Amino acid sequence: MTPLWATEFARELKYEEGKAKVVNGLGEFYFTIEADPSSGVIDMYAGRTEGDMALFPSRVVGLGPCKSAYSFTMFKAPDASDELFESQYRSLQREMDNIRRPLQPEHDQPRTMIEAAGIWHAHAQ
After folding, report:
1. Per-residue confidence of the chain (125 residues) as pLDDT tens digits?
2. Which of 31, 32, 37, 42 would bridge 58 by S-S if both were Cys, CB 3.0 to 4.6 A apart?
3. Strand 19-24 vs strand 27-36: parallel, antiparallel, or unpaired?
């Protein structure tokens, strides 16, 4: 099962020899998350092979008892066209909207980005 926010990057989640793989319009990719709730670090890795996984670093920064900011960094691969990178950026924007929606006060859960990442991490185990 994929998290609700992952409508494009992870249209399907499957396992191959115990390793999580996401499936999307570009194919299948190994995927893992290393998250540290105490520091707010949520590093995501994806790649066609386990030996060639790109880092997608993200961070949650507390801005008070009930507010936080989230940053996500996506690097353009040397062999990626500008058009592909732009389409991936637009896809990321849509998925960020999917993440923001449940964090609004009228929703019950998740309430923080770490909880949102934890939900994904639990699904990817």
Report:
1. 666 777 778 888 899 999 999 998 888 999 999 999 999 999 999 999 999 999 999 999 988 887 888 888 889 988 889 999 999 888 888 888 887 777 666 655 444 555 555 444 444 44
2. 42
3. antiparallel
What CA–CA distance (Å, rounded) separates 92 from 69?
A: 16
Q: Report residue 96: phi and psi, to 5°.
A: -65, -35
* CA-based R_g, the chain, Å: 15
Count, residues in the chain = 125
Q: Report how far residue 33's alpha carbon sits from residue 41's, in angstroms, rounded to the nearest whole number.
A: 10
Taken in order of first residue, the domains within the chain and their CATH numbers are 12-124 (3.30.530)
Q: Which residues contact 39 (CB under 8 A, 6 or more apart)?
A: none
Q: Whole-prediction pTM value? A: 0.72
How buried is 73 (Cβ within 10 angstroms: 0-12 exposed, 13-18 middle, 19+ buried)? exposed
- Cis peptide upstream of residue 110 (ω within 30 degrees of 0): yes
Amino acid identity, position 74: M
Pairing between β-strand 54-62 and β-strand 68-72 as defined by DSSP bridges? antiparallel
